[in-house]
From TrEMBL:
It holds the Pfam family Pyr_redox_3. The keyword Oxidoreductase applies. Keywords: Oxidoreductase. This is Pyridine nucleotide-disulfide oxidoreductase. It comes from the Bacteria. InterPro entries: Auxin_biosynth/cation_transpt, FAD/NAD-bd_sf.
Length: 374
């Protein structure tokens, strides 16, 4: 099974933290022949982050004491150590990822886009912008930044998504933001600091306490502190009056955002949509079953329930009510997926125990839902 050099044991698609992290875990499996392709540059998504955007989870070098830096994707590395900052920008984190790939000689082919994936008797046949590839297994690590979610909103084309530079460019006067979770409040605090008056519209009022201690359902402490400071200026309004239903520009250059229930708010510039991202499975979409809410259904090994041998890594990972939307969460599965692939091919996977020692391997998902006592 391992004799044909033209067939990769596994191919990673995407070179963000999930793709590079999984490739690094796969390197710890004895004798695995792997490749990785990236349609842009390593860390492409982070290079596209608006320049003012930073991570909200902190980076800190706790590695020597069993508390691996929350944004590391390899047990022996720490973005805080290599970058010298605790809340990196996208460009800084892309620099960390590039350094990691270089140091550990991760075999990534940049500027190579996968356009089709076909399941075959041998595994997978993939067409890329640089030619075809055959692999026994595939790990989809294509991310979701390229798939901003557009809410059902009349006139949505008159707004800027929070993932774009336009949403972060300096504005004055009244600003309206639709969506009040992390990214909505991030861009709101940014514009309040710049002197604007901002109204955030979200009927689910995520700025209130939230459920439980899981940061996927509760605002980060950093955001809560920033919101408190922004509210103190008197120029931030958090409105849970209703769902935004439409955006209408007028001849004077104003924008009216209609709210369900009949009210409205006015903005002096294009409203901002902080409505998150969809899963963005690209050419792998048809190979995953839908969970019923747009996100892919996976088995306990993060493998497609439709297509054996196709795994998913990254922030689109969901199991029951668990969301793996932060680096420190989905990185727990790199070594697990690597071990599943390695064991199927009969390889020695003992090298992955170093990932467990570093607190970067969770194979029992029932351990993830723990609540903090206080
Ligand atoms: C504004 C913002 C703030 C965030 N803050 C935090 C935070 O504080 N802490 C945290 O843990 N997480 C945070 N996240 C989430 C984190 O950034 C994402 O989880 C992370 O980017 C996902 O990594 P990834 O490797 O899955 O995807 P990406 O980094 O998007 O990588 C996917 C790669 O796949 C490539 N690709 C896609 N399709 C193809 C194809 N067909 N062929 C070849 N290559 C392809 C893309 O070019 C891209 O480089 C934040 C996200 C955003 C948007």
């Amino acid at each position: 099974m391992r004799d044909d050099p033209a067939i990769l044991d596994t191919l990673d698609i995407g070179a963000g933290p999930a793709g590079i992290g999984t490739a690094l875990a796969l390197q710890a499996v004895e004798g695995l022949v792997q490749g990785a392709v990236e349609r842009g540059q390593l860390g492409e998504t982070f290079l596209q982050w608006p320049e003012h955007v930073t991570f909200l989870t902190p980076s800190f070098t706790g590695n020597g004491f069993g508390a691996t830096d929350l944004k590391s994707v390899h047990p022996d590395t720490s973005p805080a150590f290599s970058l010298g900052v605790d809340y990196p920008t996208g460009a800084q984190y892309a620099w960390y990822l590039r350094g990691l790939a270089k140091h550990f000689a991760v075999p990534v082919m940049p500027n190579t886009e996968v356009t089709t994936i076909t399941a075959t008797a041998e595994g997978f046949s993939l067409a890329t912008s640089k030619g075809s590839v055959v692999a026994r297994t595939v790990v989809w690590a294509g991310g979701e930044f390229h798939n901003p979610r557009q809410p059902r909103l009349a006139g949505g084309e008159h707004a800027d998504h929070s993932a774009t530079a336009a949403a972060w460019a300096a504005r004055s006067g009244r600003i309206v933001i639709v969506g009040g979770y992390e990214s909505g409040l991030d861009v709101a605090c940014h514009h309040v600091a710049g002197g604007a008056s901002v109204t955030v519209v979200d009927p689910d009022h995520p700025w209130q306490a939230g459920n439980g201690s899981d940061p996927s359902f509760r605002l980060s402490p950093r955001t809560r502190q920033r919101v408190k400071a922004a509210l103190a200026t008197g120029r931030l309004i958090l409105s849970d009056a209703g769902r935004a239903t439409g955006i209408r520009p007028d001849a004077k250059g104003l924008y009216t955002v209609a709210i369900a229930g009949g009210t409205a708010v006015t903005a002096d510039s294009r409203p901002i949509l902080a409505t998150g991202f969809g899963p963005g499975l690209g050419p792998a979409t048809h190979l995953f079953e839908d969970r019923g809410n747009g996100w892919p259904l996976l088995d306990d090994n993060d493998e497609s329930t439709l297509t054996p041998g196709l795994f998913l890594t990254g922030a689109a990972l969901r199991h029951e009510s668990l969301k793996f939307c932060f680096v420190y969460k989905y990185r727990q599965r790199f070594a697990h997926v690597a071990r599943v692939i390695g064991e199927r091919l009969g390889r020695d996977c003992s090298g992955l125990e170093a990932w467990r020692t570093a607190g970067m391997l969770t194979d029992d998902l029932s351990c993830c839902g723990v609540e903090c006592a206080c």
